[in-house]
Amino acid sequence: EWAILVIMCFLVVSLEMVNTAIENACDRITLETDEKIRKTKDIAAGAVLMMSICAVIVAGVIFIPKLPVLF
Questions:
Q1: How many beta carbons lie within 10 A of that of residue 44, not counting itself?
Q2: Is 35 noted as a catalytic residue in this protein?
């Protein structure tokens, strides 16, 4: 279970790094408003959000069954 949680955390951080790289590359291309670049940045940010939600769901699946033991 701990290995799964660590992997999920690293996946979120890794995807955030990819998102940052995409945003920096897009900013390097042009700083002007471009619809395609905006969509590219939004999709990359959405991927980070989806992975974060997935990580929370996995953590819930692991930890929620253990809560009754605490009470």
A1: 19
A2: no
Question: What is the total residue count of the chain?
Answer: 71
Measured CA angle at 44 (ends 15, 29), to 5 deg: 115
Catalytic position from the list 1, 16, 32, 35: 16
Q: How far is CA 51 from the centre of its chain?
A: 4
The pTM (predicted TM-score) of the whole model is: 0.86
Task: Print the SS3 string covering the chain.
Answer: CHHHHHHHHHHHHHHHHHHHHHHHHHHHHCCCCCHHHHHHHHHHHHHHHHHHHHHHHHHHHHHHHHHHHHC
pLDDT digits (tens, 9 = 90+) for 30-71: 888 899 999 999 999 999 999 999 999 999 999 999 999 988
